TrEMBL record:
One of its GO terms (cellular component) is cytoplasm. Coiled coil: none annotated. Belongs to the TsaE family. Keywords: ATP-binding, Cytoplasm, Magnesium, Metal-binding, Nucleotide-binding, Transferase, tRNA processing. It is found in: Cytoplasm. The keyword Metal-binding applies. InterPro entries: P-loop_NTPase, T6A_TsaE. GO terms for molecular function: ATP binding; metal ion binding; transferase activity. This is tRNA threonylcarbamoyladenosine biosynthesis protein TsaE. One of its GO terms (biological process) is tRNA threonylcarbamoyladenosine modification. The gene is tsaE. NCBIfam families: T6A_YjeE. Its main location: cytoplasm.
Amino acid sequence: MAEDEIVLAGEADMLAFGHRLAALARIGDVIALEGGLGAGKTTLARGILEGLGLEEEAPSPSFAIVQPYDIPDVKLPVAHVDLYRLDGPEEAGELALDDYLTDSLLIVEWPDRMGEGAWPDALRFHIAMEPDGARRLTADVPDAWTERWSQI
């Protein structure tokens, strides 16, 4: 697994980066988004969804926990997941999130709620806020993404 850092100046850059990720995403991929409240996890997820063709505003799935999107609204099925409200991995088991991997892209906010070792092949981003408002993304790039990552 390789690690890479990217600094994005603002929301528009975060959305544009999401569009680039969308162009490379495949069914069965997990994109895991970590970072504090307000770091930009949902903004990046929205950028991915827009890049996949979603025309309406994607709501944060904080209360629904899982927000599915399907063709024709997006180019490939997506499950956008926000695990913030879960207390631990035992609650996440009831969501059967791995079932989505057979036919969808899985975008997961707060993946740490699943516990250590969840989705070891996920493309993971830790998003940190910089003093000037920029976002620093530290990417853990798994082998499955190595070739695609070079196209980012």
